[in-house]
Write a structure and sequence with these properties.
By secondary structure, the chain is mainly α. The protein has 6 helices and 2 strands, in the order αααββααα. The relative contact order is 0.04.
């Protein structure tokens, strides 16, 4: 059995059971469209709608209480994250892409073929030898390697400078 995508966080196993009851009542009415089966179907639909509505209200109430707690505890990150989750809601994904000509493609086989072509064009570079031979320009100036003599002279300058600073501080006090 394929796993269903869950867009509603309040939808659980109990909701699935009620949904199955509703489907069974509808199937029974389709097989035997009598008034008794229609009344049963309408009753099951009302019960299911009421249950889903109450379940969603309870979830939203718990979410609001969680946001209030985050506000009181000064947990700003979780507060804003929760507000954005509630405010954004469900946003369905679109399964449409444009082909090479700019036309919209909707069926899954064509979409997969389009992505295959797109990535093969990007990832399969044919002019690799040209890229390796090209000069690489960078923003940093090229600095030659420092020699041991240059390092030694720099250290001696620092030592003289620090000795002068210590002497000046000593004379000032």
């Amino acid at each position: 059995m394929q796993e269903m995508k869950q867009h509603k966080p309040w939808f659980d196993e109990e909701c699935l059971g009620i949904l199955d009851q509703r489907k069974q009542a509808k199937m029974q009415w389709i097989q035997d469209p009598s008034q008794r089966n229609l009344d049963t179907l309408n009753k099951v639909r009302r019960v299911a709608s009421r249950y889903f509505r109450n379940k969603k209200k309870a979830y939203l109430k718990a979410k609001i209480e969680e946001l209030e707690t985050n506000s009181k505890v000064v947990n700003i990150r979780d507060l804003y994250r929760g507000i954005n989750d509630v405010k954004k809601g469900y946003q369905p994904r679109t399964g449409i892409v444009k082909d090479e000509k700019g036309d919209l493609v909707a069926d899954s086989h064509s979409i997969m073929e389009r992505w295959r072509n797109y990535f093969s064009q990007i990832l399969n570079v044919h002019g690799v030898s040209e890229v390796r031979q090209a000069e690489i320009h960078s923003a940093e100036p090229l600095v030659p390697e420092t020699s041991a003599l240059e390092v030694q002279l720099a250290i001696e300058k620092l030592q003289k400078k620090t000795n002068h600073q210590v002497l000046i501080k000593y004379l000032q006090n």
